[in-house]
Every structure is written in C-alpha cells, then in structure tokens.
Amino acid sequence: MGMTTDRRTLGSDSTTSSALEVSALGLGCMGMSEFYGTRDEDEAVQTLHRALDLGVTFLDTADMYGPFTNEQLVGRAIADRRDEVQLATKFGNERLPDGTRLGINGKPEYVRSACDASLQRLGVDHIDLYYQHRVDPTVPIEETVGAMAELVQAGKVRHLGLSEASAATIRRAAATAPITALQSEYSLFTRHLEDEILPVLRELGIGLVPYSPLGRGLLTGAITSEEQLAEGDSRRTAYFPRFQGEALEANLQLVAAVRTVAERLGCTPGQLALAWVLAQADAGRPAEGLGVAPIPGTKRVRYLEENVGALQVQLGEEDLAQLERAVPRDAVRGDRYGDLTSIDGDE
C-alpha cells in the first residue's frame, strides 16, 4: 500500500496563525486505551507506526482516554518521529486516575494545569492542536479560550480547537482567539452540523475534524449484532442507543443499503462512508470550502489500511445521490448519545 500524500488545511490561511496542514485522514486513538473492548498496546503501537508510514500523520488523543494512558501510549509511539506528526489532544472532561468522572472543567487555571500534564505524558514540548473537549456551561467561553490563547503565546500549543460546541459558542470563541478546528461527530448517520454549524465554520474560516465518521464502527459493516461486541464495550450500554435492540436492527438495514452502493463502486462500506465525509468539502456540498479531515479510530493495522483506501474512492454526484437515498438524513434510529446533557447548545 503506497503512502498517501493527501493533505488538508484546517483553519483559514487569511490568518496564517490559525492554519494547520494535516493529513486528509487522521487517526483517532481513543479505542486503543478504553471504551471499545480490549487493549493490546503492542498492536496499538504497530498501528500508530503503520499510520505514519502511510502518511496518516494527524493523531488524535485526549487526557481523559484511559484516563491518562492513551497520551502516554501515543507519546511512546511517536517519540523518535515527533516532527512527522500533527498531534492533537484535549482537556475538559475531568477524571480521576481510577476513571471517576468529575464533570466538565473550563476554568482557566485548569486549562493551564491540564496542558502541562498532557505535555508531560506525551513527552513533547508542544501540542499542535489543543481542543476544549466539551464546553463548560459554568465558565464563559471567553475565559477558557483566553487561557488557551495564553498557551499559544507561551509556545506550549500551536493551534486551538473546540469540540461539540454550538454555533453561538464557536462565534464567541473565535472572537476571543483564532480557532483552527471544530471536532464534532459527523457521518452519514449524524448530520446535524449541516444546519447551523457548518455555515459558521465557513464564515469564520474554521476547519472540521469529524469524529466517529464510521458511526462508531456501524458503517464499516463489521458489526452485525450486539452480542458481537466484547464485554465491557461501551457500545453495549444505554450510552449508545443506536446499538440497542430495535434501533440496531433498523440501523443495520441502513448499513446493508450502504453495502449495496459500496459493492457497485468496488469498495467496502467503511471506505464509502469515509469517502462521503471527505466529499462534503466539495463544491455544492454542506462543508464546501472547509478543510475537512476525519479521524476514524482504530487499534488494528488492517482496519487502518482499509480506512486509508477510502482516499482512492472517487464519488460522483450520482453516487452521492444514491448513497443519500439509501441513508436519508434522519433515517438513523436512536440518539447519538443516551445522555446529551454534556453537549453544548440544545441538542
């Protein structure tokens, strides 16, 4: 498999301070440490090294994954290849070492201490893209982003991002400091960003980093029943309603329809789903003109290689139309989270 040189620019070049060039496809590292079944650190490191060899250099982690262990894992894997990587991590979902969740914290002093702790765990002197993981409704966004901007001035962070922020919050944040990227859930199954958020990103010159572009694995076609998911996989819980009972059955019908289109195009369902996300930046599409760099997560080399194959899938207008008939915008059953209270705005 050849190396991909496909790149995207997050953030607008008009304010060069906010523009960050990344690989068109990133790698979400969360599942290597928590949430989606068992851990195998050796395989995770092999996957990270293979990603860099393939030109997938945009790596995404967060302090709360593990908690704390995912940053250490990523840091070890990139130790001798730091200059190849666009390294993204996040703060704001505060947890104790035993995993206890303390809630969302956007206080300026917490921003500073969280960043220092992440730099130490990652073993690096700067973070390329630092996101607020979730918006803290108790702290004005100007205060949080103001503290984040100080990290840029201090040289600890190069670029700033938000995650799951509402259109109004994005505007306020961008008025405080240059925002390079919004990382939010976006896929064939999750399209709510198209209404208010994508137009604001375009207006402000902010890039889009879609997480869960494969619908937490549903769109790969690899999941055929709830039983198939490992014990301890959070997708088996009420936290992810789309994987439960009748909702799962209905959603698997949609995946079957995606598979039909994928077979005609000679790719896998997952490759088609990723190609769809990438195509949204094309003329006349909802994310037109935006830098769009999805971060499908995997902990296995073979899935990484399959994902990279999505960059070869060319979708014409008729292909997109057929796919969107197969999966109408609001066809998916179940909320994307069982509890949406931590999501900014009135989801």
From TrEMBL:
Q: Which Gene3D superfamilies match?
A: NADP-dependent oxidoreductase domain
For this protein, the record's SUPFAM superfamilies field holds: NAD(P)-linked oxidoreductase
Q: Which residues form the NADP-dependent oxidoreductase domain?
A: 25-326
Q: Which CDD domains match?
A: AKR_AKR13A_13D (cd19076)
Write the record's keywords in alphabetical order, separated by commas.
Answer: Oxidoreductase
The answer on whether this UniProt entry bears the keyword Oxidoreductase reads yes
Q: Does the keyword Phosphoprotein apply?
A: no
Tell me what this protein is called.
Aldo/keto reductase
